[in-house]
Amino acid sequence: MKHSGKSFHLLTLSPRGDPMPRGELADAFLLDLEFMPPFQHRSEVTAGKVTLPVPDEPFAICMPLPVEGFGHVYVYADNQGAGYKPAEVAGRTLNFLLEAADARAAAVGAAEGRFADTGTEPSSDYRERMSSAQTILEDARRRRADDVVCTQLATRSLAASMHAGELLVLEHARARIAASGRRQGFRFGCNAFRYPGMRDPYAAAFRGLFNFATLPFYRSQTEAEEGVRDFSKAEQILEWAAREGLEVKGHPLVWFHRGGVPDWLRGRSYEEVSATHRDYISDAVGRFRDPIKVWDVINEAHDWANDLSYGADQLTEMTRLAAQATREADPEAVRIVNCTETWGQYVASGRGYAGEIGHPARTALRYLRDIMEAGVDFEVIGLQMYSPQRDLFEIDRQLDRYGRLGKPMHITELGVPSATHFPQDHDNREALEKIMGRRWHGHPWSESEQADWVEGYYTLCYSKSTIEAITWWDLCDPAFIPHSGLLDGALREKEAYRRLATLLRSWR
Question: Quick check: 396 and 403 in contact, CB under 8 A?
Answer without folding.
Answer: no
